UniProtKB/TrEMBL annotation:
Pfam family, one: ARM_PUB
EC assignment: 2.3.2.27
Superkingdom of this protein's organism: Eukaryota
Protein name in the entry: U-box domain-containing protein
PROSITE patterns: U_BOX
UniProt enzyme class: transferase
């Protein structure tokens, strides 16, 4: 009897399940009013443009700020304002619709956080100017911290910060506090540099403020005695100034201790970012478009600090970015005889340079060939015809240079490579060693 009851109950349940399966559920269609005209998806943060058309914030801000289009996507009309205004009415309607259709998998869209706007950024910048005028370092430091938090929040917020001239205000503030020689200013000055690194690259007005003699002296001071993060941010800002303004190279070089602090950042590295920025700053100093006498003096100062030996040591094992910049600086140092002498005397120079050929990048290969070519010329000038050549042949330089001519490179590099091959060809029979591992990753057919 119990068995019959169980069978009857199972049959009833099966019929219920069958009915449920047979019921057709009408699909839910998202109303057109709730769809973004750009993505055609349900809007999560509807905003209105100056043309009156509503879009999802993420899509329209990508259109405006990332794609650089200042027209309405639907109407094509030029926008009178780039600040989208939240459409609270549509947002509430979307939220209510999601609640009503929860059974179909639509979760209620949360109310978005109010984004940073031009007015909010402008208000903070005005307060910074006011605090600066009063000499209130702590107040400025706190406000710069808010700017930093906004810049880190999202690319959208960062765009508003840049568009409202934050870099110019921060650079002027840095310059103003640099004129006051006080230990109390160190904290706010480091905080300003930290904020500036978040809104690179700089416009001309920003560079003008940071490039003043007083500002450059303060940057050097922070590089000398600042905190680790302060020194890191200082060299990032310095790299930006020197790479885009050749007139600042000589001014910076004339500041007492400037060359020494940059060299120290290479010899006592903080992190890869700082090392890369320091190498770039030095590269612009040793390869400037200034007179040869000025360049020779700068190079001599770097050589006296032992930079050549440190660069060669770094090249033994380093990342691609560091390798390219270190080779660029080394090539600049080899522009004078004293630099060539130091590189020529180092036992690691030739093996390291040959090792980098065709292994790192095209620019690393070009720098390596250029340095080898300069060393070869220097060797002949001091009366040694075979030392460098024999060493280079032993580590497989000849085969790499031949391969370089076939895989392609700049005309100047090919000319230097061909010149080296001519000089080394007669010595090939005396000593030769091929490092086959250098060729395993090449995917060229010959």
């Amino acid at each position: 009897m119990l068995s019959a009851f169980k069978n009857r109950r199972a049959k009833q349940n099966a019929n219920k399940m069958k009915k449920l399966v047979d019921v057709e559920v009408d699909p839910v269609t998202i109303p057109e009013l709730f769809r973004c005209p750009i993505s055609l998806e349900l809007m999560k943060d509807p905003v209105i443009l100056s043309t009156g058309v509503t879009y999802d914030r993420e899509s329209v801000e990508k259109w405006i700020f990332e794609d650089g289009k200042h027209t309405c996507p639907v109407t094509g009309v030029a926008l009178t304002s780039l600040d989208p205004v939240p459409n609270h009415t549509i947002r509430r309607m979307i939220q209510e619709w999601c609640v009503e259709n929860k059974a179909y998998g639509f979760d209620r869209i949360p109310t978005p956080r109010a984004p940073t706007g031009s007015s909010q950024v402008s208000e903070i910048l005005l307060k910074i100017v006011s605090m600066r005028g009063k000499g209130n370092t702590e107040g400025v430091r706190e406000l710069v911290g808010k700017i930093k938090d906004m810049a880190k929040e999202s690319e959208r917020d960062k765009k508003y910060i840049v568009l409202n001239g934050s870099a110019r205000v921060l650079s002027e503030t840095f310059q103003a506090f640099s004129c006051i020689d006080s230990q109390e200013n160190t904290g706010v000055l480091e905080e300003i540099l930290s904020g500036l690194t978040l809104i690179l690259p700089f416009d001309q007005e920003t560079k003008s403020g940071l490039g003043s003699n007083q500002s450059l002296c303060t940057i050097v001071k922070i590089l000398k005695v600042g905190s680790l993060s302060g020194r890191r941010n200082a060299v990032l800002v310095l790299k930006e100034l020197l790479s885009s303004d050749q007139t600042k190279l000589q001014e910076f070089a004339e500041i007492e201790g400037s060359i020494e602090v940059l060299t120290k950042l290479i010899k006592e590295p903080i992190d890869p970012t700082t090392t890369n920025a320091s190498l770039l700053a030095i590269y612009h100093l040793v390869t400037p478009s200034t007179s040869f006498n000025q360049k020779e003096t700068l190079i001599a100062r770097f050589l006296a600090m032992g930079l050549t030996e440190k660069l060669i040591e770094m090249l033994v094992d380093c990342t691609r970015g560091v390798c390219e910049k270190a080779l660029g600086v080394l090539e600049g140092l080899c522009s004078i005889d004293e630099g060539l002498e130091k590189a020529y005397a180092n036992a690691l120079t030739v093996p390291v340079l040959v090792k980098k050929l065709l292994r790192v990048s095209d620019i690393s290969t070009e720098f390596s060939v250029s340095i080898l070519w300069k060393l070869s010329k220097y060797e002949k000038s001091i009366g040694d015809e075979e030392g460098l050549a024999m060493e280079a042949l032993q580590v497989g330089a000849f085969q790499k240079l031949v391969l370089l001519l076939q895989v392609g490179s700049s005309l100047h590099t090919k000319e230097k490579a061909g010149d080296l091959l001519k000089g080394w060809n007669l010595l090939r029979g005396r000593v030769e060693c091929i490092e086959s591992m250098d060729f395993k990753n090449l995917k060229r057919s010959f």
